[in-house]
Amino acid sequence: MMSPNLSWIILLPLLGLGFVCLVPSDKPSLIRRISTVSVFLPFILSLWVYAAYDHVAGGFQFVQNIPWVVPLGISYHLGVDGINSLLLLLLGAASFSAVLISASIKERIKEYHLLLLTTVIGTYGAFLSLDIFFFYFFHEVAAVPVFLMIAIWGSERREFAAMKLTLFLTAGAALALVGLLALYLAAGLGTFDLVQLQAQLAEHPLPMEVQNWIFPLIVVGFGITLTLWPFYTWAPVGYAEAPTAISMLHAGVLKKMGAYAIIRFAIQLMPQAAHHWMPFIAVLAVVNIVYCGLVALTQRDLKYILGYSSCSHMGYILLGLACFNVIGLNGVVYLMFAHGIMAALAFALTGFVCDQTKTRNLDELGGLLKCMPFIGTCFMMAALASAGVPGFGNFVAEILVLLGSWDQYRWLTVLAVLGLVITAIYLMKAVRLGFQGPLDTRFAHLTDTPTLVEKFPYVLLLALLILVGCLPSVILMHIDSSTKTIVESIR
How far apart are CA 40 and CA 484, in angstroms? Predict the structure, then answer.
């Protein structure tokens, strides 16, 4: 079987961006078609990479390594293992769905798709990079367009949301940059190459006192992206005021870059500091779960409920990272994928409802299942998935995290289970108030998505959630060798 060329996953949306630049602004349908093809082809390539990856052999595969700035040890180094090949698949599905759903954008369509494609390019580059410099570069390429898209195409409080998101994520990126540069200097190899750093630091770990001050810089820096408590407050308002596609991509995919970076650059390269600091992070993780869940319980705005819910569920990822066992880390990677698909689906459905009803307030909604049976049914299934009902991917992922944390953090695990109960309450409340009961006469004229093409992105995301929920081996068999390698290296 011919090996896939990973560079094409980045180059195809980059070529699409170039073509969109050349198309006049008065041809929106052509711009949309180019943008759709530009994210569809990388999605197909990500499926190929996932299928072609040899999980028995493990390790990084399909590697490309081209020296770039040799004196500083910077190289264009791409590769995938069981973890980031799964995240490529997540990004492919979410970005393709996000572009299809962006048909509702009617103003400044060319600029919108240019920024959206830039975000996709940066995220693909970050997940593929095995060079710390290029990871950080692509991380920033993905982040910058988000600020602009919220400020231009967001809803009523878009300027405030964009500014708050910018301040928090810039602060986190600056902290992480200081930590990564300190790691580069402390290692003394003169290289940003992740593979070389892993090999060197496994044999000759950094002194404990050095690890202990670099580790929290990286964890907190990228933890802000992951909505680590108490630095999460940018996320609910950011997701609520963002255009639907950005809510889907940021809540579903971009925040997972934070967890991915913590695994690669903090836990794997500084395991002694991880054992010292991660029990404290486990406590903050449970605060994430319970506190953000309780705040979601008080909300009446549908997008704010999903925003706080997303912050709450990141606590399970942080708790799993603190376990240092294969079961917990498998649960983390599984949840990164399952939550990403579920969040993209939930925000897509909410965006459709808001576009049709012109309100996000649950007190003004009700009975929408009568006029929107397809959208209402999909939303109910997304809510069940988020609540951890068996049959969906989130159930498998959360069970693995809870089993992985039980021996080390028994009381914290009990509180994390309480978080699942809270999740079920606020999501069922949202379903009852928004979609059940009598239909308001103002919405009697509303209809569902009329065509199969418009239904497709919702069906795609929902099908993936059910597939990985009913066949967990599709993911577990794929990621197990990579998570075992990481756990063995940090014990």
Answer: 32
